[in-house]
Amino acid sequence: MDQRGAYYNTKEQVRWLGDLLRKLPSLDAPVPQPTKRPKPSRAKRLDEEQVQQLVEGYQAGATVYELGDQFGISRQTAAEILKRHGVQVRRQGLTLEQIDEAVRLYEAGWSLAGIGGRMSVDPTTVLHRLRERGVQIRDTHGRER
User: Fold this and answer.
1) Of 15, 32, 100, 103, which is the most buried if we count CB atoms within 10 A?
2) Closest Cα to residue 118, out of 100, 105, 134?
3) Nearest 5°: CA angle at 52, between 46 and 56?
């Protein structure tokens, strides 16, 4: 009867432990410094004067993107502030002529992102307008679905 069992041939286990030891850093290697990460900041809150300036700027024609940059907030936050103060937010979207051009470009092989970039709108906006026009949308590889 063999009492050594599974541990009789230890060559494989020794090789595995040797590989593991080679992966470990040497004892005289310098200790790596912890990575410095910026602490999360608190959300910026605008005071009443800044909110009034934001509303007036929007009503004077500035975009929510421009106002967000000016006040150090996101465009979504700027739009929320305008909404809370009863300001009707302008929708840029695409004109009928732009939609016609988007259809033509898409059928010529342009991507949604390319058309959106050319017309300064989100590619999803282009997708929605094309679908409204009944355009057959390609898959991500340019094939018909």
Assistant:
1) 103
2) 105
3) 130
Is there a contact between 94 and 126 (Cβ–Cβ < 8 Å)? yes
Q: How confident is the model at residue 3 (pLDDT cuts 50, 70, 90)?
A: low
pLDDT digit string (tens) for 125-144?
999 999 999 999 998 776 77
**Half-sphere exposure at residue 36, Cβ-oriented, CA atoms within 13 angstroms:** 0
d(CA 129, CA 91): 14
Which residues does residue 144 pair with via DSSP β-bridges, in sequence order?
A: 138
- In three state form, how does the secondary structure of 14-76 look? HHHHHHHHHHCCCCCCCCCCCCCCCCCCCCCCCCHHHHHHHHHHHHCCCCHHHHHHHHCCCHH
The dihedral sign for the CA sequence 81, 83, 87, 89: positive
pTM: 0.44
Q: Which two tokens stand for residue 135?
A: 């355009």
CB 80 within 8 A of CB 93: no
Say how many C-beta atoms besides its own lie within 10 A of residue 136's C-beta.
Answer: 10
